[in-house]
Write a structure and sequence with these properties.
The protein is an alpha/beta fold. The two termini are 16 Å apart. Strands 3, 7, 8, 11, 12, 19 and 20 form a seven-stranded mixed β-sheet that branches. A six-stranded parallel β-sheet has the order 15-14-13-16-17-18, with helices on both faces. It has nine helices and 20 strands. Helix 7 (275-278) links the parallel strand 17 and strand 18.
Length: 343
């Protein structure tokens, strides 16, 4: 089978890999669609994502959906041909968690994640014609959710988890700083959760148009040093750029809350953080998700439309071009999708 494999920085290839075979408790998918994420881009551009560096070739991709091709022994409740997506996390070993973290499996000590070099050997992702997964990772797609949209259940789950970190949003005013794919999905998740007014900010008009289509009540272009809205009680920071943190803290109301959704660097970086103390701001981290991927599917089945974030589609053999478009701000891209097998 064909797979999209990164061998090092700026070295992406379409390789032939052995077709997987379902063992006990396993499922093999014909993967139909995959969404390119920032971590995929980072492995391609830099040979690393955060602190996880490539030591060997890695199949990319953790946002995927397709149809079941094989069921291993002992797998029940699933059928060959059934459309599904995959929870890309698998807990490793018999690690224990303190009672205060009960149920927060995204904070488990060791997690293998599709398309990640955090372990050696690496955990191959799903940008391939077929993919092996544990049956426990499979999430059937509900009626009305096709595999193109089902591949976006994973990033929507990230957004839903971020929104869930602050409790009830009903009637609250929200600022989302950064209208890339995750920021735009946070806009949708906040509106889905009942937020009264959602403002999205970015330096790209194309990104802001997508945020608007995803439900933002207001959008604001802050290119050229434009100021963020002020006195916002709840802010979702979705850029992960340390240099903007000072302005984001200043925009947050005294005693307000910031949810950090955008991944911050794993190395020292300058940031202006004084307002965190003097304005008594609560700064909350948000990391991946627990099982909000199930909630994401239900939300899509209930009418949450993620279509506006899909800006480009490419075939598997065009993976490098797809990565370039996804990485190029001038291309007007948001979520770039790979068609991995015929749909």
């Amino acid at each position: 089978m064909k797979a999209v494999v990164v061998h090092g920085a700026n070295d992406l290839r379409i390789d032939e890999r052995p077709e997987p075979v379902a063992g006990p408790g396993d499922v093999v998918l014909d993967v139909e669609w995959g969404g390119i994420c920032g971590s995929d881009l980072s492995y391609w551009r830099h040979g690393a994502s955060g602190t996880a560096a490539l030591k060997s070739p890695l199949v990319l991709g953790h946002e995927v959906a397709g149809r079941i091709a094989q069921l291993g022994a002992g797998v029940t409740g699933l059928e060959v041909g059934q459309p599904v997506t995959v929870h890309p996390a698998e807990l490793v070993g018999e690690g224990t968690m303190p009672e205060r973290l009960a149920g927060r499996t995204n904070l488990y000590p060791q997690i293998r994640y599709f398309g990640s070099a955090a372990f050696d050997p690496h955990t191959d992702g799903g940008f391939s014609e077929r993919k092996l997964a544990r049956a426990s990772q499979i999430r059937p797609l509900p009626e009305g959710v096709d595999t193109l949209h089902g591949a976006l259940a994973e990033p929507l789950a990230v957004a839903l988890h971020a929104v869930g970190r602050v409790g009830n949003l009903a009637g609250r005013d929200v600022l989302v700083n950064g209208a890339g794919p995750i920021g735009s999905l946070v806009v949708a998740a906040a509106k889905h959760a009942g937020a009264r007014n959602v403002i999205a900010t970015d330096i790209s008009e194309a990104s802001l148009a997508i945020a608007k289509a995803m439900g933002a009540d207001e959008v604001l272009n802050v290119s050229g040093g434009g100021a963020l809205p002020q006195d916002v009680e709840l802010v979702f920071e979705a850029t992960g750029i340390p240099a903007v943190l000072g302005a984001v803290l200043r925009a947050t109301a005294r005693g307000g809350t910031i949810v950090q959704v955008g991944n911050l660097p794993g190395a020292p970086a300058p940031a202006t953080l004084g307002d965190l103390v003097t304005r008594e701001i609560t700064w909350i981290g948000s990391y991946r998700f627990v099982d909000e991927i199930t909630d994401a599917l239900l939300a899509m089945a209930g009418g949450l439309d993620v279509s506006p974030v899909i800006t480009h589609r490419f075939d598997l053999d065009q993976a490098e071009e797809a990565m370039r478009v996804s990485a190029d701000p001038a291309a007007g891209s948001s979520k770039v999708m790979l068609r991995l097998t015929a749909t």
